[in-house]
Amino acid sequence: MIKVGFYPGCSMKGGAQEYQESVSALAKVFDIELVEVPDWNCCGATAAHNMNKELSLSLPARIMALAEKEGITDIVVPCAACYNRLSLVKHELAEDPSLSSKVASIIDLKYEGTTQILNIIQFIDKYITDRLEEKVVKPFDYKSACYYGCLLVRPHSILKFDRVEDPQSMDVLVKKAGGNAIDWAFKTECCGAGMSVSRTDTVARLSGNIMKDAVDRDAEVVVVACPMCHSNLDMRRPEINKFLDKKIDIPILYISQVLGLAVGIDAKTLGLNRHMTEVNLPVRPAKEPAIAAVPEKEVITQKTEA
Length: 306
Prior knowledge:
Shape: globular
Order of helices and strands: EHHEHHEHHEHHEHHEHEHHEHEE
Number of strands: 10
Radius of gyration: 20 Å
Number of domains: 2
Distance between the termini: 37 Å
Strand content: 5-15%
Strand order of the largest sheet: 2-1-3-4
Number of helices: 14
Low-confidence stretches: 289-294
CATH architecture of the largest domain: 3-Layer(aba) Sandwich
CATH topology of the largest domain: Rossmann fold
Mean pLDDT: 92
CATH class of the largest domain: Alpha Beta
């Protein structure tokens, strides 16, 4: 059993519970134990670095220091915003030893900056990809628009993760799972992020443009790696449809859910029943053997719980 550090962040304990469920279920299939950082705190998200510089550094630094104290060398951080904050703070403290020392005194913990911060795709690449195709029992045979959002790949000078304008790492994973990752134009456009409540109209416009391009290119599903992106594209679908003046009903799936379905994890375990937009995917008839008559279109339906 491989042990890997895990930082869920606030979202996975609340509105993105299905993300944590799917990541945990996927890890289990590959004999990986996710070890949660003890006594973790909020990373500060957007608010902290807009309000208080020292606070914005101290919150992520404390998380990493706690991981170091436990001997955790790799931390998988599935939330793109959390991944972005931890990575940027690690870089900033590494560039300024005096600032690093000051932050260590604030959090009252030893901080060396030795932990490796992995986003969900980096985690999969490092611990799962080599064994993925051999575990696929039900290829995810759908046209998929892989949506990276703006925080997963920027700033490239620090994160050094994939290409900024046309990233490919999630596309590769979808293809390994049996899917068809389409070429489209809105891979890294902003969905509106934290303006979901304060400026819902802006989110409807930005997310609406993303969804329109995906549907115009015949995507059957949008694949994400960020709980905020999922929330805006999924939960704000009524506002998106109103902005576009058309009904778009294709589902939004986390990359962990896509791979989970491909390796045979059931829909409920992956949390598909928790989505606001119902996950309706046509069942593909088996290509071989082509003996029995193919039934009429069936549908995987996971209705949202009340």
